[in-house]
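Q: What does the predicted 3D structure of Siderophore-interacting protein look like?
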Amino acid sequence: MAHNDTTAQQTIAEATPPGSPRTLRTRLLDRFFLEGQVLETEQIAARMRRIRIGGPALSGLDWLPGQQIRIATGDPDADGIMGRIGELRTYSVWHYDPDAAEIHLCVMDHGDGPGATWGREAKPGLAVRFRGPEGTFTLRPDAPYHLFAGEETAAAAFGPMLRAVPGHVPVYGAIESATEADRLPLHRAVALTRPLRGAASAARSQTLLDAIRTIDLPAEPGVAYLAGEARTIQMISTHLVRERHWPRRSVVTKPFWTPGKRGMD
């Protein structure tokens, strides 16, 4: 779901000699990051916090539902550039209000990594630096219908995508979670199945694959959006292409994570 992005950190570090004034560091950071502050946090699901970020720099952003921002998880008050950036972590934008100049994120508590720690400790008033929005995992407006498949990490991207689907366009799909308490509130949820995997792993999820297999889809393919764990995405993509004979161009994928591998969104 998140990965490191060292390009900005390396460029800033190389451009900032030791002992440079704080104002110079700030100007360099401003070249690569936008800045806002946490306005509110809310426990929106058992392991998911909604973090509302606002500020003048968030007005008029070019955002499409499904796109992401990259959060600098470092200490905003640290003396060194690298300390202030920390590691970058990528989060889908749950909601964007250009008039209020606010972005809402849903941050999953999934361990002790820098992203999960940042999400747990974020409080109103915290300065937040980020890059984006960015990404091509967005709705295809010409699709005759849309199919969504993923687990908890995908739900944050799917939420705004579902809200953006015109009311006359059919929606199908399955969004898996470990328990009912882990479910994010989703628009048009009646059109989706919400399977529970219990204690089973979300990696290579047979539960999610079986849920997609049982959906009665139209004879002609629509567009599928598969997000979350990489191996599960591959299984569902194979099912659509080989068993339902969808063209590969109709299957849009976004792997956020897989066990034991870093460097993925």
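A (community wiki): The structure tokens above were generated from the sequence. Residues 23 and 91 are 28 Å apart (CA to CA). The helical segments are 6-15, 22-32, 81-85, 114-121, 152-164, 206-213, 230-243.
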